[in-house]
Amino acid sequence: MSARPIIAVVPFGARSSDPRAGAWARQIARRLVERSGDAMEIRPVFLVAMPEETSGEGHLIFGSTPPADLAAQYGVSLGASHVLTGTFRDDAGARRLEAQLVDSGRRTVVADETFTIAAGELQMIEDAVAEWLARSVGAAASPARSVPANEPAYAALLEGMDEEVNATLLRQSDTERSAQALHAAMDRYLESVRSDPDGTAAEERLLVLAAESLERGTVTHEIHALESLAEARPRSWRAHYILGQLRAEAEDGNGAIVAFEHAHSLKLLPDADVVRLAELYANASAPAPALAHLRRVPKTSASYGAAQELTAIIAFQRGELDAGREAFARATEAGTSSWELHASYGAAAHARGELAEAAAHYRDALAAGAPGVVRLNLARVALAAKDRDAALTELDALLDRERTGEVAGHARRLRFGLREPELERDLERSGQAALAGDATAIDAAEATFRRVLAIDDDLWEAHFGLGIVARQRGDAARAQRAFRRVLELWPDQPDALHELGVALLMSDETNAALRALDQAASLRPEDAAYVADAGFAHLRAGNLVSARERLERAAHLDSADPITKSYLGELARVEGEVGKKR
């Protein structure tokens, strides 16, 4: 037998009419396991049974009080010298925990104790059992644990731990129920925090779950939980810090800034997080606080290079080329040189007309893995330098790699203009005529669009023009085909989505029109016409509340727009008719 006692703990069973008793018993045993230390090693025995019916409560069922012989078998299988078992009992409000210590080798009970649990003192049981166990095996007492100060907080902690186990075991078989159990665990931990503002055990579990959610990618409920935790514990550095990480993951830049600044005021952030905070400020178009944070990163820091890189990018974006060059040199000296840095340098030099320097840095950016937009900018630099062949070479290279999307669309139009300058000018004029609804120019515009597509069938502007022509003629089906072709070439192109929605309304395909117009409005939220047309689609679909919300927003954006006014008038009429029917 080992000189150090090894104790196997069987999850305690429960006999009580209180449905929470099972969770309390199981998790008291689990917390005893977590007290393993140098004086004695404590190992868990896992007894798991799930409900056979898939429609039951769905919670984990485990915990028992095995006889001495079976308990000893558990101990032997784990290499344990002893096995601890227990039963939580609640008879007419008289609560107690009956504990037994079994010698694994002799298969007999060598110690037993009944712990009476007075009203409001559930939180006392854990320390009492731990001290008794240590005395029974002749070892020093287990390390002290953080135990909530009162029974409501301790009970909520145990219940949260039990729900967390449920979530873990259900994760592979039933993700929905697993998520529900995880949310329930966080809610119980929050209740524990509220019941014991000075305790740390529930806060620790909540912070761990929130940090793990960054890997799971599901952060919404965790954000709400940490917001509540930060409200209950406003001086919890880690609560604000992890909340900042979750908000950043959810692309809530402003919210992340607020959380990180709260954390920073309580305890200085590590330099890497200071750089991240500065980047959030920069992305929020707030360069001054970004630079203020970056200046605090010392030269001796491992994050100094990243700080100088971001300083340079901000300077380049502000058109401060000389300041950017200096920060660029410091970043390069520190061994930091990303494609974003080179691309920003190139853009700043390009704006200043320093074409050779711009081209050099765009090429460095591309060598470092920059996306196609950088090659498009390199082609534009070549054009500015009057090097048509070099521009065409870059555009061909870009379009060999990217066939669809906004960057490909701009590249294809630029290449077409270089190869067919006369026809490209005709395309521009014909597009304006079609959008203006000039009936005398419609036929000529259509002919131009078809001439363009005969040369390059992937030029989205020509397909868009054909869609406009078809809509002007009242041919909804042909308009829809043309706009869908645009969306194949440039998914989520806002104008094509909007026009497709209008064409779908023409043919009374209301639900499909609503989806397209809503998507277009989400991409152009400040465009009153787009928001109003989305509102009208909801009106046509009978979604009067959604229609009013969108139409009132459109009216706020442009109070003088006559179309929005007419939509609002129609909405008021329909609302009146609905009111009469009630």
Main attributes?
single chain; 582 residues; alpha/beta; 27 helices; 6 strands; 65% helix
Short structural summary:
The protein has 582 residues and is an alpha/beta fold. It is built from 27 helices and six strands.
Largest β sheet strand count, sense and barrel closure: 6 strands, mixed
- Uncertain segments are 48-61
Characterize the quaternary organization of these chains.
Answer: single chain
Q: Give the helix/strand class.
A: alpha/beta
Q: Strand-residue fraction?
A: 5-15%
Please, what is the average pLDDT?
Answer: 92
Gyration radius over CA: 34 Å
Q: Distance N terminus to C terminus?
A: 83 Å
* Backbone shape: elongated
Number of strands: 6
How much helix, percentage-wise, in residues?
A: 55-70%
Task: Quickly count the helices.
Answer: 27
Can you offer a commentary on this structure?
This protein has 582 residues and is an alpha/beta fold. It is 65% helix and 7% strand. The chain is built from 27 helices and 6 strands. The chain has helices spanning 21-33, 68-77, 125-137, 151-170, 175-195, 201-216, 220-232, 237-249, 253-266, 271-283, 287-294, 304-317, 321-333, 339-351, 355-367, 372-384, 388-401, 406-419, 421-436, 442-455, 460-472, 476-489, 494-506, 510-523, 528-541, 544-557, 562-581, and strands spanning 6-9, 13-15, 41-44, 82-91, 94-103, 108-117. Strands 1, 2, 3, 4, 5 and 6 form a 6-stranded mixed β-sheet that branches. A hairpin with a 2-residue loop joins strand 4 (82-91) and strand 5. Helix 24 runs antiparallel to helix 25 (528-541).
